[in-house]
From TrEMBL:
The keyword Nucleus applies. It is found in: Nucleus. Belongs to the Mediator complex subunit 27 family. Pfam families: Med27 (PF11571). This is Mediator of RNA polymerase II transcription subunit 27. The lineage of its organism: Eukaryota, Metazoa, Chordata, Craniata, Vertebrata. Its main location: nucleus. Keywords: Nucleus, Transcription, Transcription regulation.
């Protein structure tokens, strides 16, 4: 009785109400079981209908009886005393509305930007540490006055040699699948043209054709993806790493017509194989499945 006075709740009625809830759930389950079973165990249609209606009405009466009992017990349970301490749970009603104060989304966005800033700062620090010039502009100005001027020299090289060094063109063949024309400017890859293995890659005068596109849509798609890969593998301080990374990515197309899409599992979609290759895992995807 002391518990009833201090808390304001009839614990015995509360226990009976829990039992009433269980009874109500059982009676409701019997109603659905009756509907699931339907009309059975009678030879004639009229007998099955009568038995089903009678059984269904009995179950509904049970539900009504249990519901009335639960309502009666809920009135006997009572309400908690207003003087009962709620501690920190009493502050739940003071929580702000998410639509008016989107604090969580703002913190999440700030966290993403902080990670990006830290990542790019690390890249910039690595590039700056590779620089060999450690002197300031003032120091360079003072030392430049003291150093003797270097005498101009003339470097005589054949023009063809200079052209070959500045603008080489490579022809890469991947099995019997495709051919790739790689145009380089010094040590950097400038552009690529992908064509089928049986397509001609030379002009009438015997030079590599760096302007004509492939006659097939699948290799035109691969050419577009190769251009995207060149933009992805950008590291001006280490061009050799860029060339190796791009060539490794390009080599994954040797199974262009054999690898299924890693998302949908199909070999063809809209008449095309999976033409996209992931930059890190080199997995194959259709152009629409990679989103």
């Amino acid at each position: 009785m002391a518990d009833v006075l201090s808390v304001g709740v009839n614990l015995e009625a509360f226990s009976q109400a829990i039992s009433a809830i269980q009874a109500l759930r059982s009676s409701v389950s019997r109603v659905f079981d009756c509907l699931k079973d339907g009309m059975r165990n009678k030879e004639t249609l009229e007998g099955r209908e009568k038995a089903f209606i009678a059984h269904f009405q009995d179950n509904l009466h049970s539900v009504n009886r249990d519901l009335n009992e639960l309502e009666r017990l809920s009135n006997l349970v009572g309400k908690p005393s207003e003087n009962h301490p709620l501690h920190n749970s009493g502050l739940l009603s003071l929580d702000p509305v998410q639509d008016k104060t989107p604090l969580y989304s703002q913190l999440l966005q700030a966290y993403k930007w902080s990670n990006k800033l830290q990542y790019h700062a690390g890249l910039a620090s690595g590039l700056l540490n590779q620089q060999s010039l450690k002197r300031s502009a003032n120091q360079m100005g003072v030392s430049a006055k003291r150093r003797p001027k270097a005498q101009p020299t003339t470097l005589v090289l054949p023009p063809q040699y200079v052209d070959d060094v500045i603008s080489p063109m490579l022809l890469v063949t991947l099995g019997k699948v495709l051919k790739v024309i790689v145009v380089m400017r010094s040590l950097f890859i400038d552009r690529t043209i992908v064509k089928g293995y049986n397509e001609s890659v030379y002009t009438e005068d015997g030079k590599l054709d760096i302007w004509s596109k492939s006659n097939y849509q699948v290799f035109q798609k691969v050419t577009d993806h190769a251009t995207t890969a060149l933009l992805h593998y950008q590291l001006p301080q280490m061009p050799d790493v860029v060339v190796r990374s791009f060539m490794t990515w390009l080599r994954s197309y040797i199974k262009l017509f054999q690898a299924p899409c890693q998302r949908c599992g199909k070999f063809l979609q809209d008449g095309l194989p999976p033409t996209w290759r992931d930059f890190r895992t080199l997995e194959a995807f259709h152009d629409t499945c990679r989103q």
